Amino acid sequence: LKGLPDGSSDNPYRVVSSEVFSSLADKGNYIVLDSDLEMTSHIDILSSEVNGNGKTMYIRNFNGPLLGRISESGSLRNINIVIENSTLNVTEAFAFVTVLNSGIIENVNVTIKNSSVNVVIPGEVTEAENTTYIGILSAVNSGTIKDCSVSCSSMNITGYEHINGYISCIASMNAGYISGCSAEGDMLTDTVDTAGITAENMENGIIEKCVNKMNIRQVTSSSAWNPNIGGIAGLNKGIVTSCVNYGNLKGESLTMLEDIQEGEPDPDLTVLIGGIVAQNMGRIDHVINAGNITASSSKTNSFAGGITAYSSGTMEWCGSKGELSVRTEDKYISCVGGIAGRIDGTGSCKNGYSLSVLSLSGESTNKYSGGVCG
User: Fold this and answer.
1) What value does the mean pLDDT take over residues 25-51?
2) Which pLDDT band holds residue 161 (cuts at 50, 70, 90)?
3) Which secondary-structure segment (H or E) carries 20?
4) pLDDT tier at 263 (50, 70, 90 boundaries)?
5) Cβ neighbours for 265, distance < 8 A, ≥ 6 positions apart
């Protein structure tokens, strides 16, 4: 017969209260939940291996992340997390579940309701000198996230033009491995770049077999900001493979030309909306976009593509069948393509197809569209 629980893999601690869970989280033990938990306090580090056993953690009216980080030895598996009625002001990297994941997150299903995040400026900032990663599951991932899901109902995120703000559902910045994850619901963001799975996928980041069903709309009234939205990733420097986007993506710059008081609009600022990735500098393969995509601006270039809005990387075995529309005014450039809005530099596209319906509107004198590339 087994003795009393000792935190080993054969005889894990059986937890029924949030207080006991918090006290054991950083001890490197094996933990199994035998009850749903109402979480009321922040935990700095999870170095234990947690089997949620299908139970639910509730996070209500919370003012911070549940976990500061999951260490390389830590793991969070087989658990549901419900986040409700949380309105947060953040000045740095933030996530509802864990800010940093260096361990394993597997089969974790997050539902978020009636919550919002505001990026607050830490003192006087006059240029984009800070980067703020905001995630639902994780802000920064250098470990493994597998078979997880995020569902959002009426999620609102507000950023600021002089902060490089990024928001996504699984991991805002990925330098690790993400597989089999999904996002669904509706998200409205203001002056913060957005993606369904990962906002920035770095050089060693891998995203595979993920699905986005999140409808994302980003708007801005700032003359110094333009929306970037990707169904799977915002910026890709690594690998995105075997992923699908079903979400409708819409980016709008609401500032009109006459609203700009000083100088000409920056021609380098471009609205980028891509069904899979907003901007691709890495590799994309075996992906499909089935969502509708809209890019709209009066003061800047606007690019939209079924797979990516702008690519200097590689794309292969890609397909799109959503409706794609772009509006730009005056002298600025409109590009819409069934695969890519624009391909530059060393960018390439092989074995792709598009069934997308393309639309260009506005008074721009520089309009480009194509079944593959605009």
Assistant:
1) 96
2) low
3) helix 18-24
4) very low
5) 223, 257, 299, 300, 332
pLDDT of 114 higher than 50: yes
CA distance 30 to 203: 33
Q: pTM here? A: 0.91
DSSP secondary structure string for all residues of 287-322: EEE-S-EEEEESSSEEEEESSEEEESSEEEEEEE-S
Shortest CA distance to 187 belongs to which of 251, 140, 279? Answer: 251
Q: C-alpha distances in angstroms, 117 versus 68, 74, 133, 148, 195?
A: 17, 27, 12, 22, 16
Helix (H) or strand (E) holding 326, with range, is strand 323-328
Cα(161)–Cα(119) distance, rounded to whole angstroms?
10
Question: How much is the pLDDT for 120?
Answer: 56
pLDDT at 279: 95
3-state SS, residue 24: helix
DSSP helix/strand/coil, 232: coil
- Alpha-carbon torsion, ordered 154, 160, 163, 164, to 10 deg: 50
Residues in the chain: 374
Q: How far apart are CA 186 and CA 346, in angstroms?
A: 35
Query: Residue 276 in contact with residue 308, Cβ under 8 Å?
Result: yes
Number of H helices, E strands in the chain: 1, 44
